Amino acid sequence: AQSVAQPEDQVNVAEGNPLTVKCTYSVSGNPYLFWYVQYPNRGLQFLLKYITGDNLVKGSYGFEAEFNKSQTSFHLKKPSALVSDSALYFCAASNQAGTALIFGKGTTLSVSS
Amino acid sequence: GAVVSQHPSWVICKSGTSVKIECRSLDFQATTMFWYRQFPKQSLMLMATSNEGSKATYEQGVEKDKFLINHASLTLSTLTVTSAHPEDSSFYICSARVGHGYTFGSGTRLTVV
Fold first, then answer.
1. Residue-by-residue DSSP string for chain A
2. What is the DSSP letter of B62?
3. Sign of CA dihedral A70, A75, A78, A79
4. If you average pLDDT over residues A92-111, what whole number do you get?
5. What are the distances in angstroms from CA B44 to CA A33, A88, B5, B75, B110?
6. Residue A41 and residue B109: Cβ atoms within 8 Å?
């Protein structure tokens, strides 16, 4: 069965410091990997995706993620966190067969000023 | 870009009544729509996959007679929660695959009183 794991329920970081939100996946075939952010009572906002190509993917709002096939990981990173980055972050994956995205449980990012 | 319009954004209904949630693809044809349910501060759980012109495929544990999904056209998919009860209160989100990515509706907050 396919799955996505986000091992941390919450990540706390001070404004201006780098942040990392972890994600590992188990997907048959070549994975399509995504990061989304969600604010309270809102839908999902797309941050970035990996389909193929360079392992380092740059996305919206200064976020980036690195695809690591050997470790089956796709960690989300940002060099300098902002208070406004505080939100719920989801990692998601699918395979190339056009199936639905499978989501991790989500990680709450809290950036303190 | 591809946009899915989801309505209503929020709805309050009485126990025993039915509620219909609509998702319209505004500038593309959505042959497949995914329906998710999200409990507070939890992940998105796939409920069903609907394909235009055919019956929806429900995930294990999802009551197909309670959550009626219709995908009668390439631009409209609906989820009807029948005989709603307080335990059906949740955040419902639709999603369509677009190329190598996915687009999400803004979500519907359903409260059953």
1. --EEE---SEEEEETTS-EEE--EEE-SSSPEEEEEEE-TT--EEEEEEESSS-SEEE-GGG-EEEEETTTTEEEEEESS--GGG-EEEEEEEE-TT-PPPEE---EEEEEE-
2. -
3. negative
4. 90
5. 16, 12, 18, 23, 15
6. yes
Q: What is the pLDDT of residues A27-70, one digit of tens each?
A: 988 899 999 999 887 888 999 999 988 999 999 999 999 999 99
Number of CB atoms found within 10 A of residue B3's CB: 15
Tell me how far the alpha carbon of residue A42 is from its chain's centroid. Answer: 17
Which candidate in A3, A39, A44 is best for mutational testing of the B interface (most B CBs within 10 A)? A44
A112: tokens are 């303190």
Nearest-neighbour CA in chain A from B52: distance (Å)? 15
